[in-house]
């Protein structure tokens, strides 16, 4: 069991007041808060070892390079990648996905098919649309049901020899649905298609095992797992990464440059042009260590309790409807109240210290599916409490009274 007071003491921002009220931070789906060890590690890097990596013979450059590569190794272990060079540092999930879609530009042919799920974040839709426009490939959508679950019978029908890529999130940021990705990966592989998993939302709740999943790519952001903004990871199977062309050229990613021809560096450097976010990459390792110290079993237990309690308490409110009622679900509750715009609720409860997200959550097709402008989304992290849920429910009831 988690010692919740001890955990909360790790996060200085949580003891703040917002608008004169104790902060209740329920916007973890957008970004997580940072523990003191992460905040300290950033200044420690700049105070003690700041230097550019992979290029200097001097001591600081060595120290910075070692710390950066040690962090890569930590993340390799965390996701159980076979090789460290299959772990690419990126600026986030969006960057990772775009790296892959650009790499596929020289592989896809007109008439090839890319399957994308109906549950995706815009950052796992738009890059694939751009790729399809460029190559003449066709984007097909794996549909979902009213609970916000992907329909596997439809998925099976969509798969064919034309399918070259399947792209799906591990967990939906808008509804919290946990997708049956192991099944989806195995089925796609029967047709030789590559599978990209958008793990942006999942990594905060669980420890992905890329080798057990056997996915070809797994992208996530550091800022959603207690790490710094502007950091992320793209895991790719060695064979795929060797096949894809890099989409950014520059320093660090080359073997030899002449004006006639440039040859690319070995993995992972081929995909890491220019000076990276060195401090961020190192501190992402600190964040992963922190999450593992808390323990993903503990994290899941706390979050599932919050999900259950939050669902029960919110459903006490008259006219409240929850969107996303999948059997497999994480601690995200998307809801609306009859006759009231989500934005109005969000604005009023913010005055009461409650931070939730309102709007389409970068997933407009999901809102279109439910025929709503958006939802109010409360997304819980392991450092949240039932008392905070009580405060949110009281605030929502108050807002409802004011607005009706
Ligand atoms: C947050 C999120 C993204 C985008 O992540 P960035 O950090 O903004 O690049 C993509 N997909 C899902 C499911 C997300 O939750």
Lay out the secondary structure.
Layout: H1 4-9, E1 17-18, E2 21-22, E3 24-25, H2 36-48, H3 59-79, E4 87-90, H4 93-103, E5 113-117, H5 126-135, E6 138-142, H6 152-158, E7 163-169, H7 181-190, E8 194-198, H8 210-213, E9 217-221, E10 232-236, H9 238-243, E11 254-257, E12 262-264, H10 278-294, H11 296-315, E13 320-323, E14 332-337, H12 342-351, E15 354-355, E16 357-359, H13 364-370, E17 375-379, H14 386-403
Parallel strand pairs: 3-15, 5-6, 5-7, 7-8, 8-9
Antiparallel strand pairs: 1-2, 4-10, 9-10, 11-12, 13-14, 14-17, 16-17
Helix pairs in contact: 2-10, 3-10, 4-5, 11-14, 12-14
The protein binds pyridoxal-5'-phosphate.
Structure description:
By secondary structure, the protein is α/β, with parallel strands linked by helices. The protein has 14 helices and 17 strands. It folds into 2 domains: 4-30 and 296-403, Aspartate Aminotransferase, domain 1 (Alpha-Beta Complex); 39-293, 3-Layer(aba) Sandwich (Aspartate Aminotransferase, domain 2), CATH 3.40.640.10. It has helices at 4-9, 36-48, 59-79, 93-103, 126-135, 152-158, 181-190, 210-213, 238-243, 278-294, 296-315, 342-351, 364-370, 386-403, and strands at residues 17-18, 21-22, 24-25, 87-90, 113-117, 138-142, 163-169, 194-198, 217-221, 232-236, 254-257, 262-264, 320-323, 332-337, 354-355, 357-359, 375-379. A 7-stranded mixed beta sheet has the order 4-10-9-8-7-5-6, sandwiched between helices. Strands 13-14-17-16 form a 4-stranded antiparallel beta sheet, with helices on one face. Helix 2 (36-48) packs antiparallel against helix 10 (278-294) and helix 11 (296-315) packs parallel to helix 14. The structure holds pyridoxal-5'-phosphate. Residues 92-94, 121, 123-124, 169, 173, 198, 200-201, 221 line the site of pyridoxal-5'-phosphate.
């Amino acid at each position: 069991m988690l010692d919740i007071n001890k955990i909360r003491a790790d996060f200085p921002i949580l003891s703040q007041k917002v608008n004169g009220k104790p902060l209740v931070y329920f916007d973890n789906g957008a970004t997580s808060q940072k523990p003191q060890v992460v905040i300290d590690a950033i200044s420690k890097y700049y105070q003690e070892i700041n230097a550019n990596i992979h290029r200097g013979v001097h001591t600081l450059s060595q120290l910075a390079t070692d710390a950066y590569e040690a962090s890569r190794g930590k993340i390799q272990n965390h996701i159980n990648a076979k090789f460290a060079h299959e772990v690419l540092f990126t600026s986030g999930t969006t960057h990772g996905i775009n790296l892959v879609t650009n790499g596929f530009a020289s592989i896809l042919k007109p008439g090839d098919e890319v399957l994308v799920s109906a549950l995706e974040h815009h950052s796992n839709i738009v890059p694939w649309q751009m790729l399809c426009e460029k190559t003449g490939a066709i984007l097909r959508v794996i549909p979902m049901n009213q609970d916000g679950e992907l329909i596997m019978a439809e998925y099976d029908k969509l798969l064919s020899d034309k399918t070259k890529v399947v792209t799906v999130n591990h967990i939906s940021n808008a509804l919290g649905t946990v997708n049956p990705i192991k099944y989806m990966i195995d089925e796609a592989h029967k047709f030789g298609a590559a599978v990209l998993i958008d793990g942006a939302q999942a990594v905060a709740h669980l420890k992905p095992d890329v080798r057990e999943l056997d996915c070809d790519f797994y992208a996530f952001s550091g800022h959603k797992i207690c790490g710094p903004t502007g950091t992320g990871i793209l895991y790719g199977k060695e064979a795929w990464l060797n096949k894809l062309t890099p989409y950014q050229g520059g320093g660090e990613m080359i073997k030899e440059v002449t004006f006639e021809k440039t040859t690319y560096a070995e993995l992972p450097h081929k995909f890491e042009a220019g000076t990276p976010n060195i401090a961020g990459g190192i501190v992402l390792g600190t964040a992963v260590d922190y999450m593992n110290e808390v323990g993903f079993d503990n994290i899941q237990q706390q979050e599932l309790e919050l999900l259950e309690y939050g669902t029960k308490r919110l459903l006490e409110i008259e006219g409240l409807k929850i969107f996303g009622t999948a059997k497999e679900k994480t601690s995200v509750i998307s809801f609306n109240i009859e006759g009231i715009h989500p934005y109005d609720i969000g604005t009023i409860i913010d005055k009461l210290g409650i931070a939730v997200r309102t709007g389409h959550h970068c997933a407009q097709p999901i809102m279109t599916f439910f025929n709503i402008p958006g939802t109010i989304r409360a997304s819980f992290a392991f450092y949240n409490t039932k008392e905070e849920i009580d405060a949110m429910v009281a605030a929502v009831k108050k807002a409802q009274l004011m607005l009706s």
